[in-house]
Amino acid sequence: MRNSRNGWWEDAVIYEVYPRSFADADGNGVGDLSGLRARLGYLADLGVDAIWLTPFYPSPLADGGYDVSDYCAVDPRLGTMADFDGLVKDAAGHQIRVIVDLVPNHCSSAHPLFRAALAAAPGRPERDRFIFREGRGPDLPPNNWESQFGGPAWTRVTEADGRPGQWYLHLYDPSQPDWNWRNPDVPALFEDVIGFWLDRGVAGLRVDVAHGIFKDPDLPDVQAGQPLNGPSPYRHRPELQALYRSWRAILDSYPVDGFPGSRTAIGEVWYDQADTLRPYLAPDGLPQVFNFQLILPDWQAAAFRGAIDSALALTSGSRAPWVIGNHDVPRPASRYRLDEGYTPEMITRLIALGDQNAEHGAWRARAAALLLLALPGSAYIYQGEELGLPEVTGIPDDARQDPRFRRTHGESPGRDGCRVPIPWDRTGTGFGFSLTRDGASPAAPWLPQPPEWGRYSVGPQLADEHSFLSLYRAALRLRRDHPALGRGTLRWLDPDPETPDLLCFAREPGFVFAANFGAAPAPLPAHGEILLASGPVTSGSLPPDTAAWLSG
Ligand code: GLC
């Protein structure tokens, strides 16, 4: 049987694993595939349907593995291909599917094809797989594009004769040259990569920088004042849609008989307005794109309602799964301390806040988790969200790894604070992040954990029915069993003018969601039982920054 147009992914809860920070099996302080394999039972008990692994491929790690030097191999520091196959097999045993990351916009400057391009003379076919151009004048790059990590998006190479020569494009770090998707070798290479991983039994692909990839062939300057994520010479190009149709055809050519069922692909598309997503949602395009609508609004009921409505006006949550965080944005438990929605700059304000308001952010993140899991469609959880991990703001400069920190000369602290290794135990080196043999002491984790990290660890949270982890586990269990949750629709319950801070919707059959975004307690809407609440709900009243799941 060929792929039907709907699949398991339409209401799946998918857990994002950042492998170097999840669990370390060999005690070297860096997470690996065996560590993840050893913790699959935890994920099964949590109740997720699939995991998405960020890159685990050979890489110089200039951008946490998003600088890939071999697309069809496992970084030896993280394991072997046999470990990967074992992971897919063990995960299937737990009814967990595996999604891998595809990084098609750029590779690593250590990739053999980029090395070949550098070794070749200007104008040779090897160079045409990347975007090499002459400068606009002495020491002037070909255009004014800026790298997403700061500084120019062009780097000049030294030619074989030792003289400065052409420039190559890198929308990210100089160690991440952009592929030229107009050269037929490039789509052919990626079709092979996609086939390679699908043949190994992965259930889908997460497509990195899916809004990028194609550039305006004239490489015109970017005009001043363009919105950060709006259409531009290198974002949301119309050529993308034919590419995604071709990838959809590959996905659909895989049989759905038996596990893991139909294959999905989810594009990382950053946008200025939800409407920008529209072309990506063509019926024969990528099955899914991320929906960042719960990350972007200010902490206000009306702003959240507007954000949810603008996503649902375009498509169902089945095609645009909901998220409240990922490895690129500050942790929700810290981010929601501020009343404003996410911007790349907010990390600096969070650092300035120090520990202030920490509880406040945590309550809001618990409420946001119940919202995330009550909305129609699919949802992603980033590792550690279920533990309520805060953003780590005190990483010393010399321990920071994110290229954004380096490229902005420290002006932006970067994204390391949401990538700090997971605490599994209350005490010990690495708080149980590294499993060791024979009682040997493990190496310190690759990013330093703060001293209070043990407070958030899995062990004690499992034993505490009021913990973040217990809330997530209960929500995922209920979501699995309740006929109103998962795919479907919602109906807003109009706010009482007296309580504009209350966000309420109903789902059929018999489910009501309510969240209080205000500073004063608000009355619960009419309901039967309280199924689950993110905080103490008493005598029909919802405290500030609290959400509840109710029977209707
Ligand atoms: C995506 C990834 C991010 C990475 C960037 C460049 O946005 O999520 O972590 O730095 O692409 O690959």
Provide a descriptive summary of the structure in words.
This protein has an eight-stranded parallel β-sheet. A five-stranded antiparallel β-sheet has the order 12-13-14-18-16, covered by helices on one side. It is an alpha/beta fold and about 550 residues long. The N terminus is likely disordered.
Mean pLDDT: 95
The number of strands is: 18
Percentage of β-strand residues: 5-15%
What percentage of residues falls in helices of 4 or more residues?
10-25%
**Per the principal axes of the C-alpha atoms, what is the gross shape?**
globular
Runs in which pLDDT lies below 50 for 5 or more consecutive residues are 1-5
Ligands present? alpha-D-glucopyranose
Major β-sheet, in short? 8 strands, parallel
Spatial extent as radius of gyration: 23 Å
Q: What is the number of helices?
A: 13
Structural class: alpha/beta
Strand order of the largest sheet: 9-8-7-3-2-1-11-10
The separation of the N and C termini measures 39 Å
Brief overview:
This protein has 13 helices and 18 strands.
Keywords:
552 residues; alpha/beta; 5-stranded antiparallel β-sheet; 13 helices; globular; binds alpha-D-glucopyranose
Write the layout of secondary structure elements.
Layout: E1 13-17, H1 33-38, H2 40-46, E2 50-53, H3 81-93, E3 97-102, H4 112-119, E4 132-133, E5 154-158, E6 164-169, H5 185-199, E7 204-207, H6 240-252, E8 264-267, E9 288-289, H7 301-312, E10 322-323, H8 332-335, H9 346-353, H10 358-374, E11 379-382, H11 403-407, H12 458-462, H13 468-481, E12 491-492, E13 502-507, E14 511-516, E15 522-523, E16 530-533, E17 541-542, E18 546-551
Helix pairs in contact: 5-6, 10-13
Residues 63, 66, 103, 172, 208-209, 268, 327-328 line the site of alpha-D-glucopyranose.
